[in-house]
């Protein structure tokens, strides 16, 4: 595949149309309240893997805001491998996210796992996240397509870029054009890291689609000490933003503590990301 507008490879006869670069060569900017995702400014989203309690969320959110990030992440419905692991606080967690947004002014992104959760999560979050495990949950994608909310669609951990783009096409085909793609690592033979962050996907997706692309280096590595390097590499590769896990006390986290940054790590990293962005003619969105 060379070409400027790379054709999306496909097996069947139905190739994705709405997501393709050719449909909108100038690129899409997804606006989350006043925050432009996909423009010249890179946008930072950070927060705990899961909302655990009000102190954890507010303390982490304050640190996220003071670091220069503009969007708070936090799951209230968690897709856990084991049914015995912490499943999230549900409605209570969503209410805490609303409180954190009110207090800090940060926008909020939170996950939906079931079509029946969209309305409720949409009352408390500015962006609805569809996680890796649900990238091909077609009823969920269709329901998200009927919403007007921005959708953060994560790449399935075993999905090709063709499958990823077709998942985005499902959402767009129902009428919702506000889709943000997120590379979060894929499964490979390598077991030294949790996943293999596929940074090839960033410049390639930029050729294939007009949709904004962000990267999650937290799940992509699974290892806190690798997150800063891969975050900077993501911006250098052309990502429009980052989704990162940060926790006020990572050692006490109920979920993904070992890949969560300490608040001071995020502060230092933000300054470095700003320099990387500037080196490629972009800047950091600061609100
Ligand atoms: C998350 O962002 O909390 C999450 C569960 O990520 P993923 O769907 O990429 O595993
Ligand atoms: Mn997580």
Walk me through what this model shows.
The protein is α/β, with parallel strands linked by helices and 287 residues long. The chain has helices spanning 54-67, 91-104, 118-124, 138-145, 161-173, 201-208, 217-221, 227-236, 263-279, and strands at residues 30-32, 35-37, 41-47, 71-73, 107-111, 127-130, 151-154, 179-183, 213-215, 241-245, 283-284. The strands form 2 sheets. It has an 8-stranded parallel barrel with strand order 3-4-5-6-7-8-9-10, surrounded by 7 helices. Strands 1-2 form a two-stranded antiparallel sheet. The longest helix is centred in the last third of the chain and has 17 residues, at 263-279. The mean pLDDT is 96.
Blueprint of the fold:
Blueprint lengths: L29 E3 L2 E3 L3 E7 L6 H14 L3 E3 L17 H14 L2 E5 L6 H7 L2 E4 L7 H8 L5 E4 L6 H13 L5 E5 L17 H8 L4 E3 L1 H5 L5 H10 L4 E5 L17 H17 L3 E2 L3
Parallel strand pairs: 3-4, 3-10, 3-11, 4-5, 5-6, 6-7, 7-8, 8-9, 9-10
Antiparallel strand pairs: 1-2
Helix pairs in contact: 1-2, 1-9, 4-5, 8-9
Bound molecules: phosphoenolpyruvate and manganese (II) ion.
Please compute the radius of gyration using only Cα atoms. 17 Å
Helix content: 25-40%
- Share of residues in strands: 15-25%
Note the run of SSEs as H and E: EEEHEHEHEHEHEHEHHEHE
Which ligands does the model contain, each kind named once? phosphoenolpyruvate, manganese (II) ion
Distance between the termini: 38 Å
């Amino acid at each position: 595949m060379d070409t400027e507008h790379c054709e999306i490879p496909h097996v069947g006869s139905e190739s994705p149309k709405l997501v393709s670069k050719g449909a909108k060569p100038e690129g899409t900017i997804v606006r989350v309240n006043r925050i432009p995702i996909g423009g010249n400014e890179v946008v930072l989203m950070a927060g705990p893997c899961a909302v655990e309690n009000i102190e954890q969320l507010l303390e982490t959110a304050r640190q996220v805001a003071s670091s220069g990030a503009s969007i708070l992440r936090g799951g209230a419905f968690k897709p856990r491998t084991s049914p015995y692991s912490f499943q999230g606080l549900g409605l209570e967690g969503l209410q805490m996210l609303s409180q954190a947004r009110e207090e800090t002014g940060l926008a909020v992104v939170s996950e939906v796992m079931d079509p029946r959760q969209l309305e409720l999560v949409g009352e408390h979050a500015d962006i609805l996240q569809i996680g890796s495990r649900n990238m091909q949950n077609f009823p969920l994608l269709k329901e998200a397509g009927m919403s007007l909310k921005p959708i953060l669609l994560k790449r399935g951990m075993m999905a090709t870029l063709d499958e990823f783009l077709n998942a985005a096409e499902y959402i767009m085909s129902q009428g919702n054009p506000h889709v943000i793609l997120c590379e979060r690592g894929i499964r490979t033979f390598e077991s030294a890291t949790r996943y293999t962050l596929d940074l090839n996907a960033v410049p390639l997706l930029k050729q294939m689609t007009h949709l904004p692309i962000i990267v999650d280096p937290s799940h992509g590595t699974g290892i806190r000490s690798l997150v800063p390097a891969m975050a900077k590499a993501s911006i250098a590769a052309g990502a429009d933003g980052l989704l990162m896990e940060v926790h006020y006390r990572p050692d006490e986290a109920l979920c993904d503590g070992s890949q969560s940054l300490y608040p001071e790590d995020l502060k230092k990293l933000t300054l470095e990301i700003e320099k990387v962005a500037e080196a490629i003619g972009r800047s950091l969105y600061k609100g």
